[in-house]
């Protein structure tokens, strides 16, 4: 019975700590009979109790609250802000950084003097959590206390990789200024911040990054993908133009390790307008029929059919004289499959099958 009572009280204390409701928290603490004004500096049983599911504690969750009064109270009660963590290894500073609780983070670093770079599960630091949001004032605070932007998580991502996903200019510039070497540092999968910026369509920041590091424009990750290919996946013509301005048209002709070109990637993702640009850019009249270096000798048209990209299929089949790709609907891959066969592989691609069938009919008509 006492255990059930404590369990319910812990739930209430955890909720109040997360909310930063100082007055209600103090009342709840005193209701338990564990403290009075006379013994407010004595330890309490709930300081070391973990939520059975997440492992959260009153101490760790207080980091989210941004309530300095609550933090002062917990410190007086004997809280261990530096060492206590939940089951994922998150400490109070992790919680503050992720919640953008600036006052709490400042208090933890100045008053409680917690380490600025504790690692949680997967080796994430508070700076990484703040970079992923991103919170510029929080980044400035953590960096001013010595947070190391060169640390990487288990996937090899730096804070800069994470900030580049969101693309908040001030945060990216701040992290670059703190450690310029992050720009050249690939993750475990070989992806650089340039790949990340291109995939998420942040053309302005990509231009800034590549202006001082043009070699990154053609860097390949572990799958052979370049930033240009990432821009094609995202349908970001602005990013592609930034990259091609540095590497030239050759950047659109490269293959990844699967043999895909930029046109293949754009076709898979249904990026019609970007494909339209690539078809104008590539001088080869057979670009839409290119198999790149693919083992199955698959074309962009076949991939677009497989993915049910009917609008793109129409563009690829349109004659080059009309701004299309002039693709051959009868071309077969290494297994003898046509574009029509690829359309059958995907549910919901009846329209693609109809478009290809009409193109085949027109192709054969002169022979009838």
Automatic annotation (TrEMBL):
Q: Which domain of life is it from?
A: Eukaryota
- One Pfam family from the record: Ank_2
Give the residue spans that cross the bilayer.
none
User: Where is region (Disordered) located?
Assistant: 320-349
Which controlled-vocabulary keywords does the entry list?
Answer: ANK repeat, Repeat
Biased composition range(s): Basic and acidic residues: 334-343
InterPro entries registered for this protein in UniProt: Ankyrin_rpt, Ankyrin_rpt-contain_sf
Q: What is this protein called?
A: Uncharacterized protein
What is the species of this protein? Macrostomum lignano
């Amino acid at each position: 019975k006492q255990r059930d009572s404590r369990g319910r009280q812990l739930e209430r204390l955890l909720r109040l700590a997360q909310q930063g409701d100082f007055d209600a928290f103090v009342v709840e603490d005193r209701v338990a009979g564990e403290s009075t004004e006379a013994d407010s500096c004595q330890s309490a049983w709930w300081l070391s109790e973990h939520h059975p599911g997440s492992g959260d504690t009153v101490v760790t969750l207080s980091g989210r609250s941004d309530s300095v009064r609550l933090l002062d109270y917990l410190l007086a009660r004997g809280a261990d802000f530096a060492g206590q963590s939940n089951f994922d290894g998150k400490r109070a500073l992790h919680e503050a950084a992720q919640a953008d609780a600036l006052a709490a983070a400042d208090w933890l670093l100045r008053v409680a003097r917690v380490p600025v770079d504790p690692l949680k599960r997967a080796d994430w630091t508070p700076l990484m959590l703040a970079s992923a949001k991103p919170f510029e004032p929080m980044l400035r605070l953590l960096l001013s206390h010595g947070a190391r932007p060169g640390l990487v998580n288990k996937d090899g991502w730096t804070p800069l990789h994470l900030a580049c996903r969101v693309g908040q200019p001030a945060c990216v510039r701040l992290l670059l200024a703190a450690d310029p070497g992050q720009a050249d540092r690939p993750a475990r999968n070989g992806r650089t911040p340039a790949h990340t910026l291109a995939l998420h369509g942040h053309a302005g920041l990509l231009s800034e990054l590549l202006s001082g590091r043009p070699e990154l424009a053609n860097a390949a990750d572990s799958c052979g993908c370049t930033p240009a290919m990432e821009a094609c996946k995202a349908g970001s013509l602005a990013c592609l133009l930034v990259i091609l301005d540095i590497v030239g048209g050759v950047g659109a002709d490269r293959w990844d390790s699967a043999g895909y070109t930029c046109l293949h990637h754009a076709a898979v993702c249904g990026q019609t307008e970007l494909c339209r640009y690539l078809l104008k850019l590539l001088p080869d009249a057979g670009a839409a029929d290119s198999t790149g270096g693919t083992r199955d000798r698959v074309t962009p048209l076949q991939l677009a059919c497989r993915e049910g990209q009917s609008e793109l299929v129409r563009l690829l089949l349109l004659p080059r004289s009309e701004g299309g790709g002039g693709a051959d609907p009868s071309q077969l891959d290494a297994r003898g499959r046509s574009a029509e066969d690829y359309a059958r592989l995907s549910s919901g691609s009846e329209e693609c099958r109809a478009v290809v069938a009409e193109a085949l009919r027109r192709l054969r008509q002169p022979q009838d």
